[in-house]
From TrEMBL, chains A, B:
Protein's UniProt keywords contain Magnesium: no
Source organism of the structure: Paenibacillus oenotherae
Gene: birA
A Pfam family of this chain: BPL_LplA_LipB
Protein name in UniProt: Bifunctional ligase/repressor BirA
Catalytic activity reported: biotin + L-lysyl-[protein] + ATP = N(6)-biotinyl-L-lysyl-[protein] + AMP + diphosphate + H(+)
Alphabetically ordered keywords of this record: ATP-binding, Biotin, DNA-binding, Ligase, Nucleotide-binding, Repressor, Transcription, Transcription regulation
Domain BPL/LPL catalytic: 67-261
Binding site for biotin: Q117, R121, G122, R123, K188
Domain of life: Bacteria
Length: 331, 331
């Protein structure tokens, strides 16, 4: 299979943007035309862009844009947060790898980026669609010298950083759904997962995991997710350079992380509230022990969501799933 | 070596509380008298109490009190918090085992107890002296449905539970040093380490690790620790049943954990303040980013330590090491 796969790439690359007939491929590789078609599907899943025509055959329109270390280093020039980058082809989950490295003593600023995740993880143990070459799947080791109580503020900070980063790369309306999902037109464009490990009141480390659906096409999603998930390509119609997304995020994160460590949560809170698309809209909140309705009106100084109930009282919500009538939080 | 070891136990047990001469043992085992002496040291390190007389030889005064499951189950009758108990002989650290079990889905109430830890862990990566048969070294999996922000309150709750438990077992003055060390006469009697793991603002699980120096003798400690560490045996002069310590702790924890989940941190805070021996005494606080002096005056509703500074201002301290002139925090 692998030999066929590499041979097909060779044949298509030999005639870029020109059609190679299915029959020729079938003959050359000595496999059936159905087998050729299957190989093409596999190539597409790896990030190759292939146009198929029943009459003309197949032509290669784009290769997966592999992230490379030199390219990333150029794009990150002038930043200091990231101290080492581990670029991997296919991993189960970048979170697992970064966590293992952190346990073994990896310093703050250790960044793990994978081309593909076979078992990407989202909030609440949900899986995360992360096909090869089409998204940014990365995990960053942070060792903030803050008490455990403040860790949830980093979740909100990361959402602000990613939102500002994506807005700097694509001219799209992107907003934050509490606490840290980013939405375009009500559909999820990215996922953030901060995994914290603490001893007593001391935060040992935080693994900030970020997944951005950059160049995913509708076919990359299970059908049931298309109503709730999108990609920068689907929403904006343009292929986006993944390296630019990585670099923009790191720049924003570095800036906001410095602001946070210098001035505390105040400025982050203001930015988060300005970018939120879920404030001042009635919603249903599914907390661990109760379900209730109310209208989120902002954050408190701890990072809890302030929700105004029907009776006018305002309660801080530390943890809950938010569900609006018009959107859901798949991914 | 092992054969000798078991044979010596047989020979000593054959004449309980009576001396067996070193010469007889040496002859019987066909090893040197120095080798006999080494075996005795090994037995002592395993929890056997042996009296040695240059003239009379060795006599067995007490065997290690192995914790057994039936005994623990009887002592825990009527409690519901603990759902499964794993009793182990020698482990690196009960924290590691409980954590692995929690990662694999072990439910709340999974208790790991070891007779001996070869690499017991304390706060700040310090090692913890945990010889065989002489202490309570245990870790309990908790899955409290509380937001991450509240996790440090559990550390304080655990200190209250353990303090009340030990006071119910021995008639000694035992007090809490912030946040969770227990002291007798300024010396450390136990260690508590709560390791929390969170995804965003959700606490996935907490491993509550408790080490109590029950029947340790001065010889069990490195010399430099004797000024700062003690045991229930050293402080009270009596051998204490380790099973009773386990059961008393679980009963107290179950009670306080239920109070906390029902009424919040208020009642726990009151109990903690009443048991603290470090309030209202000037101290030096070593926080991650600064060192300052002040007088702890209580806890705030989050669990932070309220410290009054020289200028009369009161600041909340979330994380710091407290050092008094008269005691240190070894262990």
């Amino acid at each position: 299979m692998n030999l066929n796969y590499n041979r097909i790439i060779e044949l298509l690359e030999g005639q870029p943007e020109q059609y190679v007939s299915g029959e020729a491929l079938s003959r050359e590789l000595n496999i059936s035309r159905t087998a050729v078609w299957k190989q093409m599907k596999k190539l597409e899943s790896q990030g190759y862009r292939i146009e198929a025509s029943r009459r003309l055959g197949y032509r290669l329109m784009g290769k997966p844009s592999k992230l490379t270390l030199p390219e990333l280093l150029v794009k990150l020039e002038g930043t200091t947060l990231v101290r080492s980058i581990k670029l991997l082809d296919s991993v189960d989950s970048t979170q697992n790898i970064a966590q293992q490295m952190a346990e073994e003593g990896a310093p703050e600023g250790t960044l793990v980026i994978a081309d593909q995740q076979t078992n990407g993880r989202g909030r609440l143990g949900r899986s995360w669609v992360s096909p090869a070459g089409k998204g940014v799947w990365m995990s960053l080791v942070l060792r903030p010298g803050i008490p455990l109580q403040f860790a949830p503020q980093l979740t909100l900070l990361t959402a602000v950083a990613l939102c500002r980063a994506l807005k700097s790369v694509v001219p799209l309306e992107i907003g934050i759904k509490w606490p840290n999902d980013l939405l375009i037109g009500g559909k999820k464009i990215s996922g953030i997962l901060l995994e914290s490990t603490a001893e007593d009141e001391r935060l040992r480390y935080v693994i900030a995991g970020v997944g951005v659906s950059v160049n995913l096409e509708p076919e990359d999603y299970p059908k049931e997710l298309l109503d709730v998930a999108t990609s920068l390509l689907i929403a904006g119609g343009e292929h986006i350079d993944r390296g630019a997304v990585v670099a923009a995020f790191i720049r924003q994160l570095e800036h906001l992380y410095a602001v946070y460590q210098r001035e505390g949560f105040g400025p982050i809170r203001t930015l988060w509230e300005a970018l939120s698309v879920t404030l001042h809209k009635p919603t249903k909140l599914y907390a661990p022990t109760e379900v209730f309705e109310g209208t989120p009106i902002g954050l408190d100084e701890r990072g809890a969501l302030l929700v105004e109930k029907a009776d006018g009282s305002v309660v801080p919500v530390f943890s809950a799933e938010m569900r609006f009538p018009e959107a859901n939080s798949g991914g």
